[in-house]
Amino acid sequence: MSLVLGACATSPSSSENVSVEATTAPNIIFLIGDGTGFEYISAYRYAMSELGQPVIETPFDEMLVGAATTYPDDDTWVTDSAAGATALAAGVKSYNGAIGVDVNQHPQQTLMEKAREAGWHTGAVSTSQVNHATPASFFTHHPSRSMYNEIADSFATTKFGERWSFDVLLGGGMSYFNRDDKNWLPELREQGMHIVDNYDALDAQQQLPVLGLFAPVSIPFAIDDQPRLAHLTRNALRLLTDAQEQSGKPFALMIEGSKIDWCGHANDIACAVHEVHDFAQALQAAKDYQAQYPNTLIVVTADHSTGGLTLGQGGEYAWHTDRVMAIQNSFEVLLKGLSERPNSAWREYLEPLLNLPLTDAQWQQLVSLEQAADESDRSYQKRVHATLAAIVGETTRTGWTTTGHTAVDVPIMAKGPYAEMFRGYRDNTDIAKALLEIVE
């Protein structure tokens, strides 16, 4: 599957060295690539390039200013997305699973809350459900990330005076706001919330506040659907800018490329490259906005990396980007297709979707998998998934060390006013502390 790289700005903003004494607070656009360690940026760059030709520039390249640690305040060096997001939102280390609270489960003021108290406009865009760990940690406070219904309730009820905690909130998660035990939608509409559930309605929306819920849970993977994060980003920026022009107040917008992490958990390299592309296009939309409105700070980082991705595997000095980009669907879609067919039909189904030069032995390794009489469906599906991932990894020469997170450092990128505050080797909490200082 081919992707088209968006135009990249090549010269740094003249406002990049503005001192912390600048009198007019900038807009803040904070992009978080969930699970996006340096290796994912490398994979994207190579996948978009051709061997023998100059390596392409990406929207990330000119912005790199440092690297960040990601460890939580827990009995491990490896963070989860909740503790990682709490560090990035509030500048406080916490335990894995914590949403906007410290290790004693005390709520911590977040970037969005401080911005709201200062009269700023606020928003978030996510390709996961909006009550997932990262967006939740910027707006809510809960002892566990698994409290999805309660997090949705917090989004629906938390207000600063007459205003919700957000002006614009876009992503998936309709099933959490319209549940059997509670349907928030009529109440929210009655109170003045504009709710949209499709992209055309979002494009036509002119007034804030806006809650956009475009899927029951998460938005489909980019490889299976259409790139969507840049579209959501442009609409969020449009709506926030209109509000800013009326109020004179800046805005803070968090944008999460949520499902890069999900691809990493699945050890699905084609899925990951397409998700990073989607994230890169959202960054390019932010950079295009900054070119028009220079008093805008863009910061990009990750909460952690996922999967222990390596570009090269099995001792062979190769990573086959052409094979990676030939794959047509995510493992999620492919595995669903396999579950609906007898093993005898698997090869016919998969061959045109994988587009990989698999050997007969590799095909036999997959189609010979049988569910044991005492084996649960879940256990069997995990075996099929692991076998498919291993075959794709072997054929593309993509390596993975885990289906979980890793403790490696992640990139920090920044451009615009105060960008120098993010330079160097930092702790993840330092990023939030700098952003919180800018809001003062």
UniProtKB/TrEMBL annotation:
<keyword id="KW-0597">Phosphoprotein</keyword>
<feature type="binding site">
    <location>
        <position position="405"/>
    </location>
    <ligand>
        <name>Zn(2+)</name>
    </ligand>
</feature>
<keyword id="KW-0378">Hydrolase</keyword>
<feature type="binding site">
    <location>
        <position position="34"/>
    </location>
    <ligand>
        <name>Mg(2+)</name>
    </ligand>
</feature>
<comment type="similarity">
    <text>Belongs to the alkaline phosphatase family.</text>
</comment>
<feature type="active site" description="Phosphoserine intermediate">
    <location>
        <position position="81"/>
    </location>
</feature>
<feature type="binding site">
    <location>
        <position position="261"/>
    </location>
    <ligand>
        <name>Zn(2+)</name>
    </ligand>
</feature>
<dbReference type="GO" id="GO:0004035">
    <property type="term" value="F:alkaline phosphatase activity"/>
</dbReference>
<keyword id="KW-0862">Zinc</keyword>
<feature type="binding site">
    <location>
        <position position="134"/>
    </location>
    <ligand>
        <name>Mg(2+)</name>
    </ligand>
</feature>
<feature type="binding site">
    <location>
        <position position="132"/>
    </location>
    <ligand>
        <name>Mg(2+)</name>
    </ligand>
</feature>
<dbReference type="Pfam" id="PF00245">
    <property type="entry name" value="Alk_phosphatase"/>
</dbReference>
<feature type="binding site">
    <location>
        <position position="256"/>
    </location>
    <ligand>
        <name>Mg(2+)</name>
    </ligand>
</feature>
<keyword id="KW-0460">Magnesium</keyword>
<keyword id="KW-0479">Metal-binding</keyword>
<dbReference type="InterPro" id="IPR001952">
    <property type="entry name" value="Alkaline_phosphatase"/>
</dbReference>
<feature type="binding site">
    <location>
        <position position="304"/>
    </location>
    <ligand>
        <name>Zn(2+)</name>
    </ligand>
</feature>
<dbReference type="GO" id="GO:0046872">
    <property type="term" value="F:metal ion binding"/>
</dbReference>
<dbReference type="InterPro" id="IPR018299">
    <property type="entry name" value="Alkaline_phosphatase_AS"/>
</dbReference>
<feature type="binding site">
    <location>
        <position position="265"/>
    </location>
    <ligand>
        <name>Zn(2+)</name>
    </ligand>
</feature>
<feature type="binding site">
    <location>
        <position position="303"/>
    </location>
    <ligand>
        <name>Zn(2+)</name>
    </ligand>
</feature>
<feature type="binding site">
    <location>
        <position position="34"/>
    </location>
    <ligand>
        <name>Zn(2+)</name>
    </ligand>
</feature>
<dbReference type="InterPro" id="IPR017850">
    <property type="entry name" value="Alkaline_phosphatase_core_sf"/>
</dbReference>
<protein>
    <submittedName>
        <fullName>Alkaline phosphatase</fullName>
    </submittedName>
</protein>
